[in-house]
Amino acid sequence: MNWKRTALIVIPILLVGLVVYYFTDIVAYVLISWVLSMIGQPIMKFLTRIRIQNFQVGRTLAAMITIVVYFIIFTGLSLIFVPMLIQQANNLSQVEYESIFVALQEPLQNLNDQLATWGIATEGDLSFTAFKDTFAGYFQPAMIGNFVGSMFGLATNFLIGLFSIVFITFFFLKESNLFDNGILSLVPTEYERDTLRVIDRITNLLRNYFGGILLQMTIITTLVSVLLGLLGVENALLIGSFAALINVIPYVGPMIGAIFGMFITVSSNLDADFYQFLLPLLLKVAVVFAFMQLIDNFVLQPFIYSKSVKAHPLEIFLLILVAAKIGGIVGMILAIPTYTVIRVIAATFLNHWKIVQRITSGMREKSAENTS
Predict the structure, then answer these.
(1) What is the DSSP code string of 19-74?
(2) What gap in Å lies between CA 244 and CA 229, rounded to an integer?
(3) Would residue 122 be called left, alpha or beta, if left means φ above 0 and alpha means ψ between -120 and 50 degrees?
């Protein structure tokens, strides 16, 4: 085993990791800009091919137009969803949550009695008082107003971050090799060719991954919103959009989305009879989310992962658990793209290690198929 080669690779990676940790915000701006530039490359290619007599769209103008397209999409989504979120937040902050407890007291007691007859619970295990105390401990209505206020308080930092991302993205779009050249300046000359190959592979995999995520979010938003709307559930678009957004968090996200959908449904129908109206409505929400989860698990996720991660499902599951332990929700969101980058780097520079050969075997098999 060539320990010198390994040391020359591992030590710089550790140093880069320390720098990334210290300058987290700046690195985040650069990486977000890099992802946006990757997503915007098809727009750039389309624009630079436009010819009108002797006029051709240059990369500078194409980059500016691409940025404008991003702003149009962002503004359109904001105009659709931000008023809905603010209105729902105001509604939730004004709800008399005692009425929720009153509405659920009878069905909760009936459930407890039924479980007691089966020997699963004893009398009082699902008591109204215990439920109320648990709910109050995890959810406080006053926090909604404070949260909205804190979001406005973060406006300055948001604008600084937005300006930084737009500025960096513009130059990444204009000069397609700018990111590559920046990485190459950090590696020894003898590894430049391998590094370029790694960057190209990572770019293709992450482009497929983020493109798949966008497709996944679009399908889930449309599917959940349309089905809930057809079934007569209020705020269907808000529930569907939140479900698609939170679904980015592996495994935990769909459950949070379903709980959110049921909570919004209950809070929007407090005056309705529980058994005659609210319970059937909640069952409809549950069925829609179960159907969405089946589509996501057996159609969308296999498509996304086969195009990018190329890892065993159990491997991904364990990865998510480790990421959750280290970084919580943020760690779970970043786990898969980060793991993809690490595997590509390891497959190129540390392929003499047995563990690297095992975890990158799927990638090598796919590469062999593509070259045959």
Answers:
(1) HHHHTHHHHHHHHHHHHHHHHHHHHHHHHHT-EETTEE--HHHHHHHHHHHHHHHH
(2) 16
(3) beta
CA-based nearest residue to 339, from 371, 299, 312 = 312
The closest alpha carbon to 297, from 319, 321, 316, belongs to 316
pLDDT in tens, 131-154: 555 555 545 555 545 545 555 555
Question: Which phi and psi angles does 96 have, rounded to 5°?
Answer: -85, 100
How many other β-carbons are positioned within 10 Å of the β-carbon of residue 226?
14
**pLDDT tens-place string over residues 52-108:** 878 888 889 999 999 999 999 888 888 877 777 777 666 666 665 566 666 666 666
How many beta carbons lie within 10 A of that of residue 118, not counting itself?
Answer: 7
* CA separation for the pair 111, 108 (Å, rounded): 5
**Which amino acid appears at position 215 of this protein?**
L
Report the C-alpha gap between 23 and 326 in whole angstroms.
18
Question: How crowded is the C-beta side of 113, counted as CA atoms within 13 Å?
Answer: 6
Query: What are the φ and ψ backbone dihedral angles of 351, each rounded to 5 degrees?
Result: -70, -5
How many other CB atoms are found less than 10 A from the CB of residue 363?
A: 19
Q: Is 326 in contact with 21 (CB distance < 8 Å)?
A: no
Q: How many helices (H) and strands (E) does the chain have?
A: 16, 2
Angle of helix 142-153 relative to helix 155-174, nearest 10 degrees, comes to 50
Positive or negative CA dihedral for 343, 312, 223, 237?
A: negative
State how far the Cα of 60 lies from the Cα of 62, in Å rounded to an integer. 5
